[in-house]
Design goal:
By secondary structure, the protein is an all-alpha fold. The protein has a single domain, classed as Recoverin, domain 1 (Orthogonal Bundle). The chain is built from six helices and no strands. Helix 2 (20-32) packs across helix 3 (39-50). It is globular, with a radius of gyration of 15 Å.
Length: 114
């Protein structure tokens, strides 16, 4: 049976993306050692780097989406490489950056009032 993502999980994922650079440093250590990471290591690295606790379901979903070779491990290239590429592709123009900044500030205000 398919289980969707809750709003809290969605919010956690985007809070995590706002701290992607901090997490990328942790992932880079695994990359230097030519290692990929499993779900437990991923969740632990996210928590250490960002202070966010992602649910097991959310971590599992992230792995289903980004684990390109289906080895139940995420490499730096599979996750950070793809996420950085997507973030840069979306912000190539000034208007895109302006819209993203406006959206982010609106989202922060909304989350702060909850």
């Amino acid at each position: 049976m398919f289980q969707g993502i809750t709003f809290d999980e969605f919010r956690s994922f985007f809070q995590f993306l706002n701290n992607l650079e901090d997490f990328a440093i942790a992932m880079q250590m695994y990359n230097f050692a030519s290692r990929s990471i499993g779900q437990d290591e991923f969740a632990r690295a996210v928590y250490v780097a960002t202070g966010l606790k992602l649910t097991r379901h959310l971590v599992n979903t992230i792995f289903k989406i980004f684990d390109v070779d289906h080895d139940d491990q995420l490499s730096y290239k599979e996750f950070i490489g793809i996420m950085k590429d997507r973030l840069h592709r979306g912000s190539r123009s000034y208007k895109a950056v302006e819209k993203a900044t406006s959206f982010r500030s609106c989202l922060k205000k909304e989350l702060a009032t909850r």
